[in-house]
UniProtKB/TrEMBL annotation:
The lineage of its organism: Bacteria, Pseudomonadati, Myxococcota, Polyangia, Nannocystales. This is RNA polymerase sigma factor 70 region 4 type 2 domain-containing protein. InterPro entries: RNA_pol_sigma-70-like, RNA_pol_sigma-70_dom, RNA_pol_sigma70_r4_t2, RNA_pol_sigma_r3/r4-like, WH-like_DNA-bd_sf. SUPFAM superfamilies: Sigma3 and sigma4 domains of RNA polymerase sigma factors (SSF88659). It comes from Plesiocystis pacifica SIR-1. GO terms for biological process: DNA-templated transcription initiation. Pfam families: Sigma70_r4_2 (PF08281).
């Protein structure tokens, strides 16, 4: 299924405005469909279902970026640098480090390459000798593991 629909999903995500996140969004939506397919799925309705899920995911991504920028802007204007805010940030950072330490070394390395080194899945694939699809899938699983460790759900 992935081979058949991947190119279409990628192009569709780009057309809907996903930008550089299009590849990750398309991959995540396809993997989610594979892992948890709807019971009433017919072959003719797969494009419609995939399109709807891609649209929602792209909109969520765009909205998250806007809200994050607005939140940062409002915090800077409100000058939220009180000791309690700094303590909360330190506590959250400590929890994140502890959760990262609980991940296996491969998951930690992939997350570091993706988010700290700011490498794309394709670049990670080249440096590790894996396919880009395998890297995206491993990143998806690593993020899910990290969310569970942080108590944020799957």
């Amino acid at each position: 299924m992935i081979d058949r629909y991947h190119a279409w999903a990628l192009e569709y995500a780009r057309k809907k405005g996903a930008g550089q996140d299009a590849r990750d969004i398309a991959h995540d939506v396809l993997v989610a469909l594979l892992e948890n397919p709807p019971e009433d799925l017919h072959s003719g309705s797969l494009h419609a279902l995939l399109g709807a899920r891609l649209r929602f995911r792209v909109l969520d991504s765009q909205q998250g970026r806007r809200e994050g920028a607005r939140e940062l802007s409002s915090k800077l204007r409100a000058n939220e640098t009180a000791p309690s805010d700094r303590a909360r940030r330190r506590r959250a950072a400590r929890q994140a480090v502890e959760a990262l330490d609980q991940l296996c070394s491969t998951e930690r390395r992939l997350l570091r390459m993706r988010y700290i080194d700011d490498m794309r899945a394709v670049d990670i694939a080249e440096s590790t000798g894996q396919s880009a699809a395998a890297v995206r899938s491993a990143l998806f699983r690593a993020r899910a593991s990290l969310r569970l460790l942080l108590g944020l759900g799957a």
